[in-house]
Design goal:
The chain has 326 residues and is of the alpha+beta class. Helices cover 40% and strands 16% of the residues. The protein contains twelve helices and eleven strands.
Amino acid sequence: MAGIRIILNIGTAVLTAVLLVVSGCGQRKAETFYALPFPAVSIPSVYEDDYEMAVGYLAEHYWDNFTDTSRHYPCDSVFVSGVKTDDVEAAFSNYVGLLGMLDLPEAMSAIGRLFDRVESCERSDTASNVFETVTALVEKYLYDPNSPFRNEDLYCPYAERLSVYEGFSAEKRAAYGYDARMCSMNRTGSRAADFTFVDADGMTYSLYGIDSEYTLLFFSNPGCAACKNIINVLSMDLSADRLIAAGKLSVVNVYIDEDISGWYEYMPVYPESWYNGYDPDGIIRTDNLYNVRAIPSLYLLDRDKNVLMKDAPEQNVFAFLENLNE
């Protein structure tokens, strides 16, 4: 249970006092206020000897005390319901780590409950900044293409609720609805969408026609520094060629933009043991087969092309492949 205690001890130090003119969301009064720690959740004793149940309970109830609508503490650019904004973000970062310990349906349930909790804060007090702050953190950590914690499967249920949130304009609801639809494609556990691609010799392949224990689907661009780093790590550090020769792995490296001549010129950079191709008809983007919001983008598939990792942070993919080498 040591790891759980670490999570619960976030922000326990009392910070320096500051002079405020806001004593609560909607209440004005000059006073000295001491920043509060992020309020911890107590695990019922019945769960203390069951790690999985304890983690599940924590994830489900992590925000309960913070989103208690009876709380009346400063809500401004410095504080979120009396807690320093940096401490709220630190708590959210730990929460994302906690979600990673759960199976996907349980983690998605926890995210849905988080939305319900922060929405109740907004309905209770429109001067509260809990809803705005937490929503911004959800987007930053789970949906920003540059986030090392990004996870479209977890962002999707939150975006679905934002798409019908009555406090937003029709245009904003529609934008979140689009995000939710894009996130719903190729979900973890579902079969990846099939497509065809053409290699430098004019040979046509299909994703479903690739036969190996695992397939790494790699959307890349010529000249992309991050893509080149992935190529180097796979080739040198992770010995992808050895996995490929053993039938454990295929790498399908696909270019989905329009500068085909530039792609041909970059061909010497790509390992010959990979399937290197381009999308000849542009259907991956135009038909929205994959939600490729940034390059590079990595998908890990099993033999039947079921999605194991979706637009995964590269370190997650590297860790999986490193285990295959053992």
